């Protein structure tokens, strides 16, 4: 204290005090001020980014305000699940008119897809993209997966085939194979019904049912392994090769050994 009071009148005291006061106010403000301000600006930045993308690559077909044109439907109230499904599977932006808009390598990063979804949902909310707990088949019992299989056969296999291998539909259309489809997109397809596919609402396929169906598809599409050596999983040729080398080769070795140690050698 003595030290401070002695230097109270020092020439540098006032500016130093001012600096200290500013520091206290600055730190105090950053602690007290609501964290939301930064979240809000992130949010509006995301919407702005989505708007810029939309105006360039979507508005020609869907209209500058998503109202729809002769080239594409209105997007008002479609929901983030539909935007994510359409853009993250590369269906959108559609390239040219054809019987069915196919899935392609997606044009945008996950961040850009989220930005588009955020912007489009400013016109009206719809079915939201699911949380992982809604589509992850993690922790399902064998019984529940079997139930998923029954649900799939009852609701989906008419178009997609018994194990989801895909199938043709009239008019040059087709139900695609589900072998490679990401779990989140299976969920979103059910809830949003893209193109010729019907919408399966919560009343028809509950959230639990949806997870079970996803669990079944995962199970049906995982490579069956029957134990033992995989031998490169290349089928009969590599298996035959192994039998030849180790089987015949081994027998030849044993035969030579017997011949050497055998009675006649003595
Ligand atoms: C060449 C025209 C064209 C362009 C460009 C285009 N779309 Fe589409 N979009 C369509 C058509 C046509 C459909 C309807 C497909 C159907 O259901 O048969 C559609 C459907 C959609 C749907 C589904 C709507 C629903 O009811 O669920 C979404 C979401 C969508 N588009 C988003 C986008 C976004 C985002 C972009 C830009 C990245 C984009 N589209 C660019 C033509 C286009
Ligand atoms: C009336 C026929 C029909 C039925 C029934 C049907 N789908 Fe589809 N499904 C389609 C068609 C057609 C498409 C292609 C839509 C597109 O490309 O936009 C499709 C697309 C999908 C996709 C997107 C695949 C991908 O890789 O992009 C998934 C996932 C899917 N269906 C799952 C299901 C599930 C699960 C069910 C049952 C709950 C079901 N579908 C029932 C016709 C059907």
UniProtKB/TrEMBL annotation:
The keyword Glycoprotein does not apply. It catalyses: a quinol + 2 Fe(III)-[cytochrome c](out) = a quinone + 2 Fe(II)-[cytochrome c](out) + 2 H(+)(out). Keywords: Cell membrane, Electron transport, Heme, Iron, Lyase, Membrane, Metal-binding, Repeat, Respiratory chain, Translocase, Transmembrane, Transmembrane helix, Transport. The keyword Nucleus does not apply. Pfam families: Cytochrom_C (PF00034), Cytochrome_CBB3 (PF13442). The chain crosses the membrane at residues 241-259. It is found in: Cell membrane. Binds 2 heme c groups covalently per subunit. This is Cytochrome bc1 complex cytochrome c subunit. It comes from Tessaracoccus antarcticus. The lineage of its organism: Bacteria, Bacillati, Actinomycetota, Actinomycetes, Propionibacteriales.
